[in-house]
Design a protein that fits this description.
It is built from 12 helices and no strands. The protein has 331 residues and is an all-alpha fold.
Length: 331
């Protein structure tokens, strides 16, 4: 999939050619068993729809910043509450679309429109190419992948969702006012950490993403070093294919979680593509690792601190006092 996406992006002469392999791999890598048409096609189509919906919202309220912030906060809250109530991570698609379109839209409508079109192309390319690749390379298993969703504890779901929406809004606001729109990876890398329903899973995800980002970046640097020996497109395609094959094999057989290797592969693909576009591999590597790690750790710390201050744990409540025995009663 990333090889097909890379060739497609280069064939279309897109300035965002790296977007194609990264998005296409990320949208279908979670389907690790038999081919499921609904699962493989639904995610790209839904994400594309979310991109257009959020871009429409940004365009509608672009001239009224306070209203735009309020609408984004509502979307963040609803997405986080859905994750809290059901355990289904589909709310991440809403948050990802909202962050990217709002950051690009506030910076430049032309940039937002261009990113929207390119992401739509990549989404529909995934919906078309994934079934074709499954047909060319059929899986041996007939078992379908089934996700197990674990909702958060019922205690304080509303306030926990509000806390996560607030932290996401702060990260977005930081991007609006200080960072360049090209550095949106700070928020994008952190948002998947912030939305996890419990503090335990939140910190586990933060550490996992930090280390997988480092692993993916190191593999990308190795590929880029080999490219200095033989700088041909065929060599690039073969190296990306072999590196992705290794990550995918580790998803099924590795000692760490499947998502660790999946995210590492995504980082490797995007880092290789970005470094080739900018001709600055070390800067791309450091930027990606530092921004993702800072975003994940700061986001996790902020959510944990606010939860400790605002969410009451029923288990920590003092036991109810035992009524005194009435005078003259026997025990």
């Amino acid at each position: 999939v990333p090889v097909a996406g890379l060739l497609l992006g280069l064939g279309l002469r897109s300035p965002l050619a790296v977007l194609y392999p990264t998005m296409m791999f990320g949208l279908m890598a979670s389907n690790r068993k038999a081919f499921n048409l609904v699962r493989v096609v639904a995610a790209p189509v839904m994400f594309s729809g979310m991109i257009w919906l959020m871009s429409f919202v940004v365009l509608m309220f672009q001239g009224v910043p306070a209203m735009l912030v309020a609408i984004l906060a509502l979307f963040y809250f609803l997405a986080c509450y859905r994750i809290q109530r059901t355990g289904n991570s589909m709310g991440m698609l809403i948050i990802a679309a909202a962050v990217m379109m709002s950051v690009m839209g506030i910076s430049s409508y032309v940039s937002m429109d261009y990113l929207r079109v390119e992401m739509t192309k990549a989404s529909f390319a995934t919906a078309f190419l994934a079934p074709l690749l499954y047909w060319l390379l059929p899986t041996t298993t007939k078992e379908l992948a089934v996700d197990v969703y674990v909702p958060a504890d019922e205690n304080g779901r509303v306030i926990k969702s509000a806390i996560r929406a607030f932290v996401l809004l702060l990260l977005s606001g930081y991007l609006y006012t200080i960072l360049d729109s090209s550095n949106m990876m700070l928020a994008v890398g952190a948002m998947f950490v912030v939305v996890f329903p419990t503090r335990e899973t939140l910190w586990s995800e933060a550490l996992e993403r930090s280390f997988s980002t480092l692993l993916g970046g190191v593999v990308a640097l190795a590929i880029l070093w080999l490219m200095t020996i033989s700088a041909h497109i065929e060599v690039l395609v073969i190296l990306v294919f072999l590196a992705t094959l290794w990550f995918c094999q580790k998803m099924l057989t590795g000692r760490l979680s499947a998502m660790f290797y999946q995210y590492g592969a995504s980082v490797m693909i995007s880092t290789v593509g970005s470094a080739l576009m900018t001709s600055e591999p070390w800067f791309t590597f450091v930027q990606r690792v530092v921004l993702t790690t800072i975003g994940a750790i700061v986001g996790a710390f902020a959510v944990s601190l606010l939860e400790a201050l605002l969410v009451k744990d029923p288990a920590a409540a003092p036991p109810a006092a035992t009524p005194a025995t009435a005078p003259g009663a026997t025990t």
